[in-house]
Amino acid sequence: MGNGRTAVVTGAGSGLGREISRALLGAGYRVALAGRRADALAETAAGDAKALPVPTDVADPDSVAALFETVRAEWGRLDLLVNNAGVSVGGTVDELSFADWKRTVDTNLTGMFLCAQQAVRLMKAQDPRGGRIVNNGSISAHAPRPASVAYTATKHAVTGLTKSISLDGRAWNVACGQIDIGNAATEMTLKMADGIPQADGGVKAEPTFDARHVADAVLYMAGLPLDANVQFLTVTATAMPYIGRG
């Protein structure tokens, strides 16, 4: 599937980013692995010659610019950006600290904007022109969990970012879609087996699903020709308490 195509995956050092990166590498993509920790990126790469670990802070404009300059210098083009990096900090609107709010917004929203900005600039300039961006949203882009004000606000904002990139990118053959995920089994969802707060004030254990299904979905989105696009795709654990919340 990859046919030598190139990709950038942010948050590639763990969780969904690692799963997606390895799936793309397995499909023949050359993948720039972006994340804060060089050791974690090396673990994701697992010695694959098509993997290019690039330690990156997505909230830092200079660090993001350096990431995409590395891709341009190494490969000369970019076919796919998977905007996956994100953090989740719990807290209600009255209790969440400004520092935690800012860290969440800087990573989940500003980081996606900075990466998309650099990706679109590269995609516009390359020949053949164009490429695809897949933004990692969340079911929190549709319905919040209790005490998730920062995370939920950023994921709602990601939906607007996705729509705007889709519209602005049309003239340059840049497609943009969003994948909203509920309860994929990663380090972030381990606590769900012990029970997490529900909207009715109770605590309930929630089911999860194998994260490889998310990677398969990204591969499908990435494998489409640029004249077709999955605008929004939601993948959840079948029995999670999402549909019917409240």
Commentary on this structure:
By secondary structure, the chain is of the alpha/beta class. The protein has one domain (6-236): Rossmann fold (3-Layer(aba) Sandwich), CATH 3.40.50. 39% of the residues lie in helices and 20% in strands. The protein is built from six helices and eleven strands. It has helices spanning 15-26, 38-45, 61-75, 98-125, 149-169, 212-223; strands spanning 6-10, 30-35, 51-55, 80-83, 131-136, 174-182, 184-185, 196-197, 203-204, 209-210, 232-236. It has a seven-stranded parallel beta sheet, with helices on both faces. Helix 4 links the parallel strand 4 and strand 5. Helix 1 (15-26) packs across helix 6 (212-223), helix 3 (61-75) packs parallel to helix 4 and helix 4 (98-125) runs parallel beside helix 5. The protein starts with 5 loop residues before the first strand and ends in a 10-residue tail after the last strand. It comes from Amycolatopsis azurea DSM 43854. Pfam families: adh_short.
Notable characteristics:
single chain, 246 residues, alpha/beta, Rossmann fold, seven-stranded parallel sheet, two-stranded parallel ribbon, 11 strands
